[in-house]
Amino acid sequence: MFCRYFSFFSLYLFLPTQKSSLGHGSSLHSKGTPLLPGSENLTMGYNKYLRPYFGGEPVQIAMSLDIASISSISESDMDYTATISLQQRWTDPRLVFHGNQSFTLDSRLVELLWVPDTYIVESKRSFLHDVTVGNRLIRLFSNGTVLYALRITTTIACNMDLSKYPMDTQTCRLQLESWGYSENDVTFTWLRGNDSVHGLEKLRLSQYMVEHYHTLVSKSRRETGSYSRLILQFELRRNVLYFILETYVPSTLLVILSWVSFWITLDSVPARTCIGVTTVLSMTTLMIGSRTSLSKTNCFIKAIDVYLGICFSFIFGALVEYAVAHYSSSQKSAAKVQEEGAANELSEEMEEVNINNILNNSITSYKQKSSFSSIEISSDNVNCSDLTTKSHEKIKCVLRNKMHKIIGYFTIQNPGNVDHYSKLLFPFFFMVVNVFYWAYYLYF
């Protein structure tokens, strides 16, 4: 019996119209045609171009969402792609009929009914699924309630702050609004508050984890009026484990590898140079690779860039440390050779000369030379006031003493201590920097 009534109802909808007007729809019945009980309310005076309660109170549209999937989240384009099932419910008194039954109609009959002009705010591109037919559903209830469901895939913009990447938490939105009907004609509400959204808690994403979500109701004001807007706001927290294994651990190991050179003697130039240059080049390659995946977001100074910069600084510092230590060692060796050569020359002269007076004169002249050289090198033994020179020469002497004192502060007396202190200071400062880095980006 139900199928028979449904066939009669469908026939009514597709019969040619006799007359139509703006306020009153076409009369779809003719004499002698059997009627579905209550179907006169479905066909008489119905106009799909006019909303329910036209000229009166606004239509209440209650919505619910089923999130089927979030297929991709793009940091470079700052958007995400989601497949959703959107259900809209409203009451149309023109569609009231007797009985307690509900009818699920063919989706192609949507063209004969009034439906809200809902659109997705900030949507870049969207499409309605149409395999095997358009994925739409229309269900009529006896009290005039209409259920209209759609299956949509949409790409929506999401403003992201990547300063803490990859330890970031992004907040994205899905906003629904009427395009042409202001709040005087249509108002949107969530069907059951936060319970109106299903599927988010079951999603499994490759890089993210859905932490929290909640629904909001707001208004948007445009040039054409004030419109009701529904907002679904959800937080996506990135899974940092992948980046720890891919970037953080290799960069830390490269820093530790650069410290191996501190245990190699300063004379092993090829070994220490090879370790320093290799670690610097490897770190550079790692930094370039980390930026390749986010080529369009270089305007952000990301957390991973800061860490890679820290690691590169320590590796480069280890290479510079060897250059300083080796240079100081070579300078000290050259000075030692020069002193030994002068002593050998003096001993040869003393062996050739047998006369005591000449020997004493030679020794006296050697002492005078050494005393003058000590005056030039050491600033502690120079007393410019004792020199019988002119005033400008005394000023030069004072300035020379000051310069020697300043240079003495930066002079490395024992180059071997450079490696000794570096073995302790480099790991200590690297641990301190790591503590501050992880504390800031994880808790602030």
TrEMBL record:
The chain crosses the membrane at residues 240-264, 270-288, 300-320, 424-443. Residues 247-363 form the Neurotransmitter-gated ion-channel transmembrane domain. It catalyses: chloride(in) = chloride(out). This is Gamma-aminobutyric acid receptor subunit pi. Pi subunit of the heteropentameric ligand-gated chloride channel gated by gamma-aminobutyric acid (GABA). GABA-gated chloride channels, also named GABA(A) receptors (GABAAR), consist of five subunits arranged around a central pore and contain GABA active binding site(s) located at the alpha and beta subunit interfaces. When activated by GABA, GABAARs selectively allow the flow of chloride anions across the cell membrane down their electrochemical gradient. Pi-containing GABAARs are mostly located in peripheral tissues. PROSITE patterns: NEUROTR_ION_CHANNEL. The keyword Metal-binding does not apply. It comes from the Eukaryota. Heteropentamer, formed by a combination of alpha (GABRA1-6), beta (GABRB1-3), gamma (GABRG1-3), delta (GABRD), epsilon (GABRE), rho (GABRR1-3), pi (GABRP) and theta (GABRQ) chains, each subunit exhibiting distinct physiological and pharmacological properties. Residues 40-239 form the Neurotransmitter-gated ion-channel ligand-binding domain. It is found in: Apical cell membrane; Synaptic cell membrane. InterPro entries: GABAA/Glycine_rcpt, GABAAp_rcpt, GABAAR_pi_TM, Neur_chan_lig-bd, Neur_chan_lig-bd_sf, Neur_channel, Neuro-gated_channel_TM_sf, Neuro_actylchol_rec. Belongs to the ligand-gated ion channel (TC 1.A.9) family. Gamma-aminobutyric acid receptor (TC 1.A.9.5) subfamily. GABRP sub-subfamily. It comes from Sylvia borin (Garden warbler). The lineage of its organism: Eukaryota, Metazoa, Chordata, Craniata, Vertebrata. Keywords: Cell membrane, Chloride, Chloride channel, Disulfide bond, Glycoprotein, Ion channel, Ion transport, Membrane, Signal, Synapse, Transmembrane, Transmembrane helix, Transport. GO terms for cellular component: apical plasma membrane; chloride channel complex; synaptic membrane. GO terms for molecular function: GABA-A receptor activity; GABA-gated chloride ion channel activity. It is a multi-pass membrane protein. Gene3D superfamilies: Neurotransmitter-gated ion-channel ligand-binding domain, Neurotransmitter-gated ion-channel transmembrane domain.
